[in-house]
UniProtKB/TrEMBL annotation:
It comes from Paenibacillus whitsoniae. Pfam families: SBP_bac_1. This is Sugar ABC transporter substrate-binding protein. Gene3D superfamilies: Periplasmic binding protein-like II (3.40.190.10). InterPro entries: Bact_solute-bd_prot1 (IPR050490), SBP (IPR006059). Residues 1-22 form the signal peptide. It comes from the Bacteria. The keyword Signal applies. Residues 27-49 are annotated as: Disordered. Keywords: Cell membrane, Lipoprotein, Membrane, Palmitate, Signal.
Length: 466
């Protein structure tokens, strides 16, 4: 098929297909739904055609839902069983993939024309696939009611031009988190902005809190930074952008905007904080997962890559019991922060079969909008609804704060042309600054020059493709 052949040209060579499929297969779990029988009706989106004959589709899923009884995929099986009560003619084959090996497995599947029918993922990959014409548009399944109930910032992450390629489901603003228990033990809870409804605070206030941890809880690392790989890059870019009251990219995503004097000062601050032992040692050799693990062990007071979704997912992963509290990134002047949204949603690979595409839309519609399972699924992700009218899912003050913090959500740079290449330049420049090879300004200027070239190149390639 033409669209899938394009994936072969752009993602990976066929020479790797056999070995990569073998390497990734051990990280997945295969299950399937009951056999098909008769048709059913739609559940509240714009009308789509129901296949009149039995259809079989494949759904690949990262562990977006929290496991039941410690079993990855068990909750997804429940979704499929409930779905088949409404749509017994659609057989759904589930394959669970991991965050570690899943992206490469998807690349291999696309390259070999064996992509799944349905995927639950994030905009970074989905929009890239949409730009490469690998996905089926979802415009016909989005009603006017749903369209108006989702903010423009979220739709921007779900569309390419006027085509909707991702049906947005769960979201939460990416923020920092603090080990509140540490501050309670050292009698310094008043140093956190928890008495302010929006919890906004300044870099100076943040630094004062870090110094209190260093002085009164010497066995706890005050804060952390990381620069080993691109994983978790949203944490580092938001940290520096907010501390420097800057943006990562311009509002139209046409060029880099992080190389301001203030953002450079923020990066220099991180370097100095490392020397002053206010931040973890050796950040250039630490990955996001390393920092997250330190936080879950209770060894780190502040972590910079968190959200309501991660808070829920981390409950069974904590090595010691403590209360984790969500906080916005501090800003130089105490102004309102700009928070990137975590966003999860579903997409359909255009595998050339209209019946499979129609059946896949029914599955997405059920997961997102079923009267019973729609809210149940959201809670199982630990996220907030992408729809602004769906609130109050959790009886938890931190979730109520996360809902209020949605006012700080801004556009995410992940939808920018060439972003997959842009992010590869980010961490090497952070490493240069952290290891003394460049000042903050030199590192950010070098990043900007390389990233701007990538943006221009991607725009030129897209124009040529049209």
């Amino acid at each position: 098929m033409k669209t899938m052949k394009k994936g072969l040209m752009t993602l990976i060579g066929l020479a790797l297909v056999g070995s990569q499929l073998a390497a990734c297969s051990n990280a997945s779990t295969n299950t399937s739904s009951p056999a098909p029988s008769a048709p059913a009706t739609t559940t509240g989106t714009a009308a789509t055609t129901v296949p009149s004959k039995p259809v079989e589709i494949t759904w690949w899923n990262f562990p977006n839902f929290q496991p039941l009884d410690g079993e990855v995929g068990k909750y997804e099986k429940q979704i499929i069983a409930a779905f088949n009560k409404k749509y017994p003619e659609i057989k759904v084959n589930l394959e669970m993939i991991t965050f570690e090996g899943g992206p490469q497995k998807l690349n291999v599947a696309i390259a070999s024309n064996s992509a799944p029918d349905v995927i639950y993922d994030a905009p970074g990959r989905i929009i890239d696939w949409g730009k490469k014409k690998l996905l089926a548009p979802l415009n016909d399944m989005v009603s006017d009611e749903v369209k108006k109930d989702i903010t423009p910032a979220i739709w921007k992450q779900s569309m390419v031009g006027d085509q909707i390629y991702m049906y947005p489901i769960n979201t939460a603003p990416f923020m920092m988190a603090v080990n509140k228990t540490v501050f309670e033990k050292i009698g310094a809870l008043d140093l956190l902005p928890l008495n302010r409804p929006d919890r906004t605070w300044t870099v100076a206030e943040y630094e004062k809190a870090l110094k209190a941890v260093k002085e009164k809880a010497p066995d706890v690392i005050p804060s952390a930074f990381f620069a080993k790989s691109s994983a978790g890059d949203q944490g580092t870019r938001a940290y520096l952008a907010n501390m420097g009251v800057s943006r990562f990219l311009s509002e139209d995503n046409s060029k880099v905007a992080i190389n301001t004097d203030n953002a450079a000062k923020a990066l220099d601050w991180v370097v100095q904080a490392t020397k002053d032992k206010l931040s973890v040692a050796g950040p250039a050799s630490l990955a996001a997962a390393d920092v997250n693990d330190l936080f879950l062990q209770g060894k780190l007071a502040f972590t910079l890559n968190y959200s309501a979704v991660l808070k829920a997912q981390n409950v069974p992963l904590k090595k010691t019991q403590f209360e984790d509290i969500l906080l916005p990134f501090p800003t130089m002047d105490g102004s309102k922060p700009k928070l990137e949204p975590y966003l999860g949603g579903m997409a359909i690979f255009n595998n050339g079969n209209a019946d499979k595409i129609a059946a896949s839309k029914k599955l997405i519609d059920f997961i997102a909008n079923d009267p019973e399972y729609g809210k149940k699924n959201l809670i199982q992700t630990g996220g907030l609804s992408a729809r602004t009218s769906v609130t109050g899912l959790y009886n938890d003050p931190e979730y109520k704060y996360a809902e209020a913090a949605r006012e700080f959500i801004t556009d995410a740079p992940t939808i920018a042309d060439g972003y997959a290449e842009i992010r590869t330049f980010w961490f090497p420049e952070l490493q240069r600054a952290l290891t003394g090879g460049a000042t903050g300004k030199e590192a950010l200027d070098t990043f900007a020059a390389k990233a701007n070239e990538a943006i221009a190149k991607a725009k030129k390639e897209q124009a040529a493709a049209k």
